[in-house]
Specification:
It is a single chain. The protein is an all-alpha fold. The chain has 14 helices and no strands. The longest helix is centred in the last third of the chain and has 28 residues. The mean pLDDT is 84.
Length: 296
């Protein structure tokens, strides 16, 4: 992967890590489904009036429905059910493992030894934090986040398979379908009451949460991410998402005082080491194999 693309990917994962604390800020005033619905509505409108309709609308519709209802609707419900923002950011990164496994099974992409080793190290970090647990985290909430992680992996696979010519148009129109999916889901699960309270409940904090999620996390973040997913093999892109919990744990600690103990610090080190092996392991192996007389 080109260095500039790698740095863009790292920037996006930092934004996504902070986003979980921003979601928690919005959930203080808004229903989880309504918050997600408002996020995608603002991502789609009014841009959809100016952005040309992309080709392959079937893929756009399926991606949008999974992106809205399957991914972020479930994430918001999980956080609302008691899962801490930092822990939610961690569990959602199981999508990296799901994505690589699905790409291997469905698309036939090969996974190299370097990727396996790096994923094992990062997976050890994830397992360590999950073993430590989080006080007050509900089991249903945890299951909702894991289901959201699988939905994200399917979204990644759709982008890899469809390879949209205009990624920004694909994303804007997908957000319109995400809004529709969340609207139907909200009406089915909650009725119209959450929308009736929307204007009264939306203060400055909620407006900031919606705007950040719409313009920074969604339009910028997923535009960059999906472009990388389209360009590079899944095994080179998906592991970058494992950096999200590192940023998520740090942000939730700064914003909400969530504790970062020794186990979480060790887990973060495992995750960062795994990412290093996946992206720089081949270079390190070359240096190790080089004969003593060869220039280094």
């Amino acid at each position: 992967m080109a260095l500039k693309h790698l740095l863009l990917g790292i920037l996006v994962t930092a934004i996504w890590g902070a986003n979980f604390s921003v979601i928690r800020l919005g959930l203080a005033d808004l229903d989880p489904f309504v918050l997600a619905c408002a996020r995608f509505a603002l991502s789609a409108f009014p841009l959809i009036l100016f952005v040309p309709r992309p080709s392959g609308m079937r893929w756009v519709a399926v991606y949008g429905a999974l992106f809205g209802g399957g991914l972020w609707g479930l994430v918001n419900l999980g956080i609302h059910a008691g899962v801490a923002a930092g822990l939610a950011s961690l569990l959602l990164q199981l999508s990296a493992f799901f994505t690589i496994a699905l790409a291997s099974l469905v698309l036939g992409e090969r996974i190299g030894r370097q990727q396996w080793l790096g994923m094992a190290l990062a997976g050890l970090g994830l397992a360590l934090i999950m073993a430590v647990g989080e006080p007050g985290a509900s089991r249903p909430g945890l299951l909702l986040i894991v289901a959201a992680a699988f939905a994200w992996s399917v979204c990644n696979l759709i982008v890899r398979r469809a390879k949209p010519a205009d990624m920004f148009a694909f994303l804007v129109w997908a957000c319109a379908y995400a809004t529709l999916a969340l609207l139907v889901l909200t009406l089915w699960a909650r009725g119209a009451a959450p929308f009736a309270r929307l204007l009264d409940a939306t203060g400055a904090a909620a407006l900031f949460s919606i705007g950040f999620q719409a313009w920074v996390t969604t339009l910028f973040g997923y535009w960059v991410w999906n472009s990388l997913m389209k360009t590079y093999p899944v095994s080179q892109v998906a592991p970058l998402s494992l950096l999200v919990p590192v940023a998520g744990l740090l942000t939730s600690h700064l914003a909400y005082g969530e504790t970062i103990g020794a186990a979480k610090l060790l887990a973060a080190l495992c995750i960062l080491s795994g990412i290093g092996v996946m992206f720089f392991g081949a270079r390190l192996a070359f240096w190790r194999r080089a004969p003593a007389g060869c220039p280094r």
